[in-house]
Amino acid sequence: MISDRRSRVGVFGGTFDPIHRGHVEPVRRAADRLRLDRVLYLPTARPPHKSRRLAPAWARFAMAELALLDDSRLWVSPLEMETDAPSFTIDTVERLRRERPEAHLFYLVGADSLRSLPSWRRWQDLLAAIEFVVLERPEAPLEHETLAPEVQQALEAGRIHRVDNPPIALASTDIRRRLARGSAPPASALDPRVLNYVQKYDLYREPTRAVPSMHREADGAGAGQPREEDATISTPESQIADQPPADGSTPDTSSSSEAGAGAAEAAEVLEAARRKPRHRSDDLASEAQAILAVAAALDRKAEDLKILELRDVSDFTDLFMIASGTNERQVKAIADAIVDRLRAHNVKPLHIEGHAAARWILLDFGGDMVAHVFHREARRFYDLERLWADAPDLTERLVAAAEDGAPSPEPAA
Fold it and tell me: Average pLDDT, stretch 286-309?
C-alpha cells in the first residue's frame, strides 16, 4: 500500500562555525518527537549579520557533513551557498516551498530566536509560511509573555511546536576560542571527524588561518556578517544609507561639539580597527560604533537611550541600541543622524527597515551593532528591552563616553 502522507521536512540554518553536539542532539530529539523524515542543515555562505571572520563556507559545509554522517535523517544542503547575496530565512523558505511543494516544512530555532523574531526580515510572512519548532533549553525556557502578540497567536494555534531538551553546556564561541589557542575543545563537543578536519586544516588557529586553497573564497566571502539563525533583521532598504538627505543638505559628518571628545576618540578607534582583520573577540570597534551612534542620537534629542551587550547572550550582534523619538519626523532624524555619523567613518548599514513609516526604524550594522529607533508608543508596545533583560547594560558608560568633553546644551548661568 502506498502512503499518501506528505513528507515531513525540518529546516535548520546557521553558520555552524563549527558544528558541535549542541547543533545535533536537539535536532535529533525534534526529529523523533515530530516524526520528521528529513532535516536539512543549511550552512550559510554570507550571513546578513556579524563582522567576525568565519571559517570558509565550504569548510563549514564539510564539517556539517562529517558530523551528520551517522544519521540518515540529517542532511546538509548547499542551498544557501549557491548565492553571493546574504541569506535571509524568508527567501530560503519561499524557495524550499517552490522546490518541495509536496513537503510539510518545519523551521527549527532556539527560544532566543523566536523571542527576537520581530527583528527578522518579513517576519509576519515567515510566520505564515512555515511552522516553527522551538528547541528549548532548561536554562532558557520559552516564556509566553516575552513573545510578540503575533507569535503568541501562532503558538496558541499550534503552528509553533515546543521540544524540550536536556542542558548542553556548549557554545561555539568558547570552542573557537579554545581551538584558536591550540587547546582541546570540551570533551565530546565535536564529532571526532570534525575535530580531525579542524586540526588538519588549522581552521581556527590565530593569528592567521592556514587554510588550503581548496577552501579559500574569493573577495573575502568567508568573512561575512552572521546570519539570522541567530536572528536576522531587515529588508533591503539600504539604498537609503547611500543617498544624501532629502532636504539636499550636506550630511553631518563631523564629530560636533555635542558629540564630545569621547565620540572623537571613538572615531579614531573605529578607523584603526577598520584597517585590521576583524574577529568576534575584537569588541573595541563595536563600542566605538556605539559611541558614535549615541552621540548622533543625542544630537537629535533622542529619548531613553539603551545599549545592551549581546555578544555572550546571542550570536546575531555584539551591541543592541534602542532610542525613542516623540514623532515620526524625529524618529527619522535620529536614524538619519546615526547613519550619517557612521558613514563618515566608512561604516554603512547592511540594511535599513521601516524608514518610510518611521514608527520603528531598524539599522543593521552587521555583527557589531543593531540600532532600533522607535516612536515612543511603538517602543512601549514591542518592549524589546524585555527580550534581553539579562543582557549587560552598557548605557551609562557609553553615553558618558559620547558626552565626554561636550559643552552643556544649557546656557551658562
Answer: 91
- Cα distance from N-terminal residue to C-terminal residue, the chain: 91
Residue of 325, 306, 329, 338 whose CA lies nearest to 378: 325
Look up the pTM and report it: 0.56
Contact 182, 154 (CB under 8 A): no
What pLDDT digit, counting tens, does each position of 40-61 carry? 999 988 776 555 678 888 999 9
What does the H/E/C string look like for 42-73? EECCCCECCCCCCCCHHHHHHHHHHHHCCCCC
* pLDDT (tens digit per residue) in 216-255: 333 333 333 333 333 322 222 222 233 333 333 333 333 3
H helix intervals, 71-207? 89-99, 111-115, 123-129, 149-156, 172-180, 192-201
* Number of other residues whose CB lies within 10 A of the CB of residue 355: 18
- Closest of 209, 173, 204, 205 to residue 189, by C-alpha: 173
Rounded Cα distance, 185 and 179, in Å: 7
Averaged confidence pLDDT in the chain: 78
d(CA 24, CA 34): 15
Specify the 3-state DSSP secondary structure of 306. Answer: strand
Work out whether the CA dihedral 83, 363, 291, 368 comes out positive or negative.
negative
C-alpha cell of 257? 561639539
Q: Return d(Cα 385, Cα 320) in angstroms, integer.
A: 10
pLDDT tens profile 118-159: 888 899 999 999 999 999 987 677 888 888 999 999 999 999
| DSSP per-residue letters across 184-215 | PPSTTSS-HHHHHHHHHHT-S-SS-----GGG
Q: Is 6 left (phi over 0), alpha (psi -120 to 50) or beta?
A: beta
